[in-house]
Design goal:
- The chain is an alpha/beta fold.
- It contains eight helices and 14 strands.
- The chain is globular and about 55 Å long.
- The model has no long low-confidence stretch (mean pLDDT 97).
Length: 255
């Protein structure tokens, strides 16, 4: 199984438009971040995408992704679903509807914001998708792959993380109940968001993410959804405990 980090940045990406901080002016490619998304390639050859943000088209072209079997939505904020219209390319190539999974709040938002996709008599050539509502409790099958949802909170918004075999992926969260944390135990790879070093009202800070990593004790952990306020990748990486890494765009991890 392999995870590719397609994007590791926040809603504005990095560099941020018109920002002159050291991170946004950095020449280090590790500091250049698309909006957060990841691709899981299963041992059975399935491609499962987690979130489909506004950089989706370039992410697919950059990594030469030629088929996509399912999309898992963590939540429906625009930086996580803004690329939905571009699934049409896969509709054409695969001659099938895209299978999309998420909780009812997220999928209701998709139906509202992309109403033209889901109307009874859509215009020819529009994207096509089937929506699958998750309760966040029970495991489910996505193209024959068993996936465990993980409920978390993004301030007042319920969001979902996902465990696919040895990989657990959580983003845009600032609280996870103990019962849900139990679902993370035994993960070989834990991906978790940390916006910056200081606290934030709706995202884990780096110390908060490290505290969860210390509880779960995965073999390796990767920080994602990183803002320019975190600091330079090179500097922050040196401060992290053994087995904890700042993810970066294009990073591939084999398990």
């Amino acid at each position: 199984m392999k995870i590719t980090f397609l994007g590791t940045g926040t809603s504005m990406g990095v560099p941020v438009i018109a920002c002159h901080c050291d991170v946004c002016q950095s020449d280090d490619y590790h500091d250049h971040r698309f909006r957060t998304s990841a691709l899981i390639e299963t041992d059975g050859g399935k491609n499962i995408l987690i979130d489909i943000g506004p950089d989706f088209r370039m992410q697919m072209l950059t990594h030469k992704v030629e088929h996509l079997d399912a999309i898992l939505i963590t939540h429906a904020h625009r930086d996580h679903v803004g690329g939905l219209d571009d699934i049409r390319a896969f509709n054409y190539v695969q001659n099938s509807k895209m299978q999309i999974y998420g909780n009812s709040i997220a999928l209701n938002a998709l139906q509202r914001d992309y109403h033209y996709i889901f109307e009874p008599h859509p215009y020819a050539g529009l994207p096509e998708a089937d929506l699958h509502v998750l309760d966040g409790i029970d495991s489910f099958q996505a193209d024959d792959e068993t996936i465990v949802p993980i409920r978390a909170m993004h301030k007042d918004l319920p969001v979902l993380g996902y465990r696919i075999g040895p990989i657990t992926y959580i983003t845009d969260a600032n609280h996870i109940d103990d019962k849900e944390l139990d679902k993370l135990r035994g993960s070989e790879v834990l991906v978790i968001n940390a916006l910056r070093k200081s606290t934030h009202f709706s995202h884990f800070s780096l110390p908060e993410a490290l505290a969860i990593i210390d509880i779960v004790k995965p073999r390796n952990a990767y920080i994602t959804h990183i803002s320019h306020e975190m600091g330079l990748h090179e500097n922050v990486s040196k401060e992290l405990p053994q087995g904890v890494h700042l993810a970066y765009d294009g990073l591939k991890v084999m398990i």
